[in-house]
Design brief:
The protein is of the alpha+beta class. The chain has one domain: Roll (Hypothetical upf0131 protein ytfp). 30% of the residues lie in helices and 26% in strands. The longest helix has 18 residues. The two termini are 24 Å apart.
Length: 251
């Protein structure tokens, strides 16, 4: 659980300093994309390998799926995935970065533990839900974020859940970076859907709203705010650091 409420250093005003209107450059030349048949195969593979057929299908969300799930769910609860942790280890050349100024996105990488949200998916049209989810989570071959069944600890015990974990064989895997190195990237990178700073702020705020405080992300948001102020000359006012509950972000 989180400690006493604190104000974030990173604010919407910081995000505004980084945001730029950028056209979508497309998926890139020479990259192998998943086809409809490929996605159908992934859906079939994951449904066949469900650890507990007949039981509710759970999805473990640790980042943007918390604040933009895009699929239906009938309930949610807090869970801990042991053996996995949030990591800005996924290099982005599109969406929140460009080939000229690559960004970074979080993935679930090996080691440590991660506190997140478990969504229970409805039984009706489960395959259709998974197709939509897989198209959102991975585009290229080999997939960056691999669908995988993991164990998640909850207040009612350990349960199987679908998660998207980093594929270390992906050419976009950056490995373990220092918080300082990640902050340098997030304070600058922006793509056609928004900036890395916005992605980080959205994630931290929605985790905090659920009583989840990731110490690394909390430290990271402060570092990103410092770098934006240094690079742009922006000087935050007292109001900018007031109440994080009043802040609204794009989803």
């Amino acid at each position: 659980m989180s400690g006493k409420p604190r104000s974030l250093s990173l604010t919407l005003a910081h995000v505004a300093q980084v945001h730029r209107a950028i056209a979508d450059g497309g998926p890139g030349i020479g990259l192998d994309l998943h086809s409809d048949a490929d996605y159908d195969d992934w859906v079939a593979r994951m449904t066949r390998s469900r650890p507990a057929p007949g039981s509710p299908t759970l999805l473990f969300a640790y980042g943007s799926l918390i604040w933009k799930p895009e699929i239906e769910h009938v309930s949610e609860e807090i869970g801990v995935a042991r053996g996995w942790h949030r990591s800005f280890c996924f290099r982005m050349l599109r969406f929140r970065g460009t080939p000229e100024e690559p960004g970074l996105m979080m993935a679930l990488d090996r080691g440590g533990q991660c506190r997140g949200v478990l969504y229970e998916l409805p039984n009706d049209n489960l395959e259709g839900q998974l197709r939509k989810l897989f198209r959102r989570e991975f585009t290229y071959k080999p997939p960056n974020s691999m669908p995988r069944w993991i164990r998640v600890e909850t207040a009612r015990g350990s349960v199987p859940a679908l998660a998207f974990v980093m594929n270390r064989a992906s050419p976009f895997y950056e490995g373990s970076l220092s918080l300082e190195a990640v902050a340098d990237v997030l304070a600058r990178a922006c793509g056609h859907v928004g900036s890395g700073a916005e992605y980080l702020l959205n994630t931290v705020m929605h985790l905090e709203a659920r009583g989840i405080r990731d110490r690394n992300l909390w430290r990271l948001q402060a570092l990103v705010a410092e770098r934006i102020e240094r690079d742009t000359g922006y000087a935050p006012s007292i109001e900018a650091h007031s109440n994080i509950g009043r802040m609204k972000l794009r989803s």
